[in-house]
Amino acid sequence: MSTATFGSICFDTGCFWKDGSNISKVNRPKEGKMFVKCAVNTNTQKPKKEVRIGVLGASGYTGSEIVRLLANHPHFGITLMTADKKAGQSIGSVFPHLVTQDLPDMVSVKDANFSDVDAVFCCLPHGTTQEIIKALPKGLKIVDLSADFRLQDISEYEEWYGQAHRAPDLQKEAVYGLTELLREEVKSARLVANPGCYPTSVQLPLVPLIKANLIEFRNIIIDAKSGVSGAGRGAKEANLYTEISEGIYSYGITRHRHVPEIEQGLSQAANSKITISFTPHLMPMNRGMQSTIYVEMAPGVTIDDLYHQLKISYEDEEFVVLLERGVVPRTHNVRGSNYCLMNVFPDRIPGRAIIVSVIDNLVKGASGQALQNLNGMMGYPENTGLLYLPLFP
């Protein structure tokens, strides 16, 4: 049985008393005050949620973002969290900003019990996920945030990730989860390969333009920049403060592992092989991602045509926003949210255009899109638990 406590709030009018069943007002002109006496439910028993969630790899950045986003989800409740190196610890001890969450302690994957789990977010490192997912109960819905099931060609996976694919049969089942572009496929999937952060920021603006034959399939140049959290939480010398601060670092030049993923999506949109020039940069900021994309317009096509196509492609989408003409997207304006902001600008070189796309690499570029996908897979509105406004300043 729930209990109640009472308190009052004073305003400069009359006096309101609330006892849980009615509210009455008593004017007290001499006092010139209004008191509100409120019944506050102090029942600490939490209602059970319909969908029981397991988070594999909860001690990493994407895992902690899943926990943060699920804190206000009305239907998903976490019943299992794994973290091999942090096994036995609470989520609040690993991420103090989550100390208020009443969740089970983390366990190692080998000790995980999936009997009380309906769906899984797999936030494990690349190269470790295939065998783990292959061993999971077949009835689970799974969203994998690693790269292990994104590439449909397993030989391409081996080329770019340096090891053989360990679950080729499961790869045939995996659905690539760029939600806005593959919504129906995601809804009916059991296993969704959540897109990478760079591929999300690049494909969202480019795929509609390619499908409409508004840009040439050649000479696509992508200059992308990411916050340091995109490199994960592991201790690496290259990610030390003194290595990152007060500078910009280009990395993975011509060989970044997101290249084949981007080319796969663009080539499917074009029904023709597309090769891109892609250079990522590490920026001295915690989170955020910007892709500046240089394209050649098809003969007779104008900037207005590109803008109009993006507008009609995304005008009914919750999380993809085409800004007003001339407004430059900024990473500050998506921080902590599941939004992608974009715009298109004329280049000084005739016939070319510049597209700018920004996301939060940990939300729309990872955990937010993963939740968006699982919402669809479980039959809930995509925006459930994701209506966080960007955090600024």
Automatic annotation (TrEMBL):
Q: Which GO terms describe its molecular function?
A: N-acetyl-gamma-glutamyl-phosphate reductase activity; NAD binding; NADP+ binding
Which SUPFAM superfamilies did the record assign? Glyceraldehyde-3-phosphate dehydrogenase-like, C-terminal domain, NAD(P)-binding Rossmann-fold domains
Reaction it catalyzes: N-acetyl-L-glutamate 5-semialdehyde + phosphate + NADP(+) = N-acetyl-L-glutamyl 5-phosphate + NADPH + H(+)
SMART domains cross-referenced by the UniProt entry: Semialdhyde_dh
EC number(s) per UniProt? 1.2.1.38
One GO process term, biological-process aspect: L-arginine biosynthetic process
Pathways per UniProt: Amino-acid biosynthesis; L-arginine biosynthesis; N(2)-acetyl-L-ornithine from L-glutamate: step 3/4
> Per the database record, which ranges form the Semialdehyde dehydrogenase NAD-binding domain?
52-189
Q: Where is the active site?
A: 197
The entry's keywords: Amino-acid biosynthesis, Arginine biosynthesis, NADP, Oxidoreductase
| CDD domains in alphabetical order | AGPR_1_C, AGPR_1_N
Parts forming coiled coils: none
Q: Which family does the record claim for this protein?
A: Belongs to the NAGSA dehydrogenase family. Type 1 subfamily.
Q: Which NCBIfam families match?
A: argC
List the HAMAP family: ArgC_type1 (MF_00150)
Q: What is this protein called?
A: Probable N-acetyl-gamma-glutamyl-phosphate reductase, chloroplastic
**Which organism's genome codes for this protein?**
Carpinus fangiana
